[in-house]
Structure to design on (306 residues):
């Protein structure tokens, strides 16, 4: 990924702390009772310093509080248009994440969301916009710990 | 999670034993709660029908989490999910059987890492592909263990 993107591409910067109880609630909801997520002794014997955050929990670390007043009748936030004039109906199309390091309770992450592209497409059920976002996650020391490229269909 | 898997023992073409899941509304509620997801198609049957769905829709991130779980269970405690890519091709409904599948397409070393590339799919009862994908997992090598024991 090019590192020379201008600051203009940045849509949003959010930060958050890895919370053990929050990722354990998530793992329990998935039904993923991996002892690395729940048992610090097991995690330490596998070389970790504490219980490990489930990798797929990543986007939750920096997610925003959902305020009722922000939600449309279908439960999706009004504001979720990335500053673009997008149609109402949006769905996740694809997502790729690289995990560079294990993350632990107390880790402080910053997520920088950039617009990577918007394409107008013609599909069987009409025209739509394909929006591609890149989210870079850094820890407190400024090291990149993960990176996501996500595409969203808006129609 | 089961026992440790080693890079040395994995071959291209190897199929990861699939995992079967039936996602019921109670689990969907817990997952929406854990992810702050208020999207109504995941809990309001009539609303889902008004958007053209036959039943409430299983969350895409729950499917990809189940897919990742297959890989981390297979890899064992010292394996690590390095990369995962998934595409939402079709939706799953509450009560349907989902099957998570993965097969090894490449084994290689990159710097100090011993890596496995896999082809993934979440299917509806082993038939229609709902979520295709790819992933990379790193595994320990038996030689690394022998070295650390010698020290």
């Amino acid at each position: 990924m090019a590192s020379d993107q201008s600051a203009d591409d940045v849509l949003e910067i959010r930060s958050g702390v890895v919370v053990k109880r929050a990722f354990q609630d998530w793992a329990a909801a998935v039904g993923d009772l991996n002892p690395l997520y729940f048992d610090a002794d097991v995690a330490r014997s596998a070389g970790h310093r504490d219980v490990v955050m489930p990798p797929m929990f990543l986007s939750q670390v920096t997610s925003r509080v959902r305020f009722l007043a922000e939600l449309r009748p279908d439960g999706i936030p009004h504001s979720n248009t990335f500053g673009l004039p997008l149609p109402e109906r949006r769905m996740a199309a694809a997502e790729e994440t690289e995990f560079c390091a294990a993350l632990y309770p107390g880790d402080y992450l910053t997520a920088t969301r950039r617009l990577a592209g918007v394409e107008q497409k013609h599909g069987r059920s009409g025209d739509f916009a394909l929006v591609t976002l890149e989210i870079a996650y850094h820890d407190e020391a400024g090291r990149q710990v993960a990176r996501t490229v996500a595409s969203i269909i808006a129609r | 999670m089961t026992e440790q898997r080693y890079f040395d023992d994995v071959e291209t073409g190897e199929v990861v034993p699939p995992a079967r899941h039936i996602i019921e509304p109670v689990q969907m509620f817990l997952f929406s709660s854990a992810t702050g997801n208020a999207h109504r198609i995941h809990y309001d049957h009539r609303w889902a029908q008004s958007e053209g769905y036959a039943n409430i829709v299983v969350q895409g991130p729950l499917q990809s989490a189940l897919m990742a779980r297959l890989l981390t269970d297979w890899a064992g405690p010292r394996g690590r999910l390095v990369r995962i890519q998934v595409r939402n091709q079709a939706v799953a409904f509450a009560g349907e059987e989902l099957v998570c599948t993965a097969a090894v397409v490449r084994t290689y070393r990159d710097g100090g890492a011993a890596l496995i590339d896999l082809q993934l799919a979440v299917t509806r009862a082993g038939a229609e592909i709902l979520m295709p994908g790819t992933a990379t997992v790193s595994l320990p090598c038996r030689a690394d263990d022998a070295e650390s024991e010698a020290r």
The first helix of chain A runs from residue 20 to 30. Chain A has a mean pLDDT of 90. The radius of gyration of chain A is 18 Å. Chain A touches chain B at residues 22, 25-26, 28-32, 34-36, 42, 45-47, 54-56, 59-60, 63, 65-66, 71, 73-76, 91-99, 102 (CB under 8 Å).
